[in-house]
Specification:
Elements: E1 4-11, E2 14-22, E3 29-37, H1 41-67
Antiparallel strand pairs: 1-2, 2-3
Length: about 70
């Protein structure tokens, strides 16, 4: 299992997304926050996901995928 989390908050028309991906033992945690207008929720979410992946979440997910079948 991989800890993956997201939290969305609104303030007026502003949307703030907080995203996190960690390795199984919590030794590596990738986290970032992004904000923008609520009307751009999908692009904001995509931008946050791409940023987390580039910050190291891709390696965490790749490592998990490679070890998922290992007992």
């Amino acid at each position: 299992r991989i800890p993956i989390a997201a939290l969305g908050k609104t303030d007026g028309n502003q949307l703030t997304l907080d995203g996190l991906v960690a390795d199984a033992d919590g030794g590596t945690v990738i986290r970032d926050v992004i904000s923008g207008p609520q009307s751009a929720a999908e692009p904001i979410g995509i931008q946050l996901a791409e940023k987390l992946l580039s910050m190291g979440a891709a390696a965490i997910l790749r490592d998990f995928d490679e070890t998922a079948g290992t007992p």
